[in-house]
Amino acid sequence: MKIRLALLSVAVMVALSGCGDTKDDTAQKKPENSGHEGHTDHVPSGDVPEGLKTADDPTFKVGSQATIQDGHMPGMKGAKANIAGAYSTTAYVLSYTPTTGGERVQHHKWVIHEEIENAGQDAFKKGQEVTLLADHMKGMKGAKAVIESAEQTTVYTVDYTPTTGGETVRNHKWVTESELSAP
Q1: What are 129-165's pLDDT values in tens digits?
Q2: I want to staple 32 with a disulfide (CB 3.0 to 4.6 A). Which of 19, 71, 97, 143 is the partner?
Q3: pLDDT digits (tens, 9 = 90+) for 96-141
């Protein structure tokens, strides 16, 4: 009986060891900052929200290169980015609980004005509760969020290869002008 129990225990441990994390080098890893801790399923898309205005004279032109100075996702900080899009809008830092469950995401950078339900002409204020239309992270679309800060700025979509290695991340949303520098 003890031998059967020991063999069964070993078999279960072997089976469960195959259920661990698998390596995925497409920006789906544990993040470098609290803005995405425990919630790192980036969903890249070239789609931009309806009504989003292209920036008239962005510091970083579409097609140019820049260096990313902030680490929203693993391997972002210090990565060379190709500018895929440049838009004028209000960018928000906010906290929300994913619709897929799990821990509340604190200090998420960035959701833009056009990615919030019933966004009128005026920017949302600190402390306001909103419903997200953004879907660039799993569990974001439809989530209730609280605005922590707002910044009128140029936001960029960027393509970059993580400094940690792996495949190129395409159309990462969003990086603000202050988070980029000349290459």
Answers
A1: 999 999 988 999 999 999 999 999 999 999 999 999 9
A2: 71
A3: 999 999 999 999 999 999 999 999 999 999 999 999 999 988 999 9
Q: 53: closest CA among 85, 84, 87, 83? A: 87
Domains of the chain listed by start with CATH number: 26-181 (2.30.30.1210)
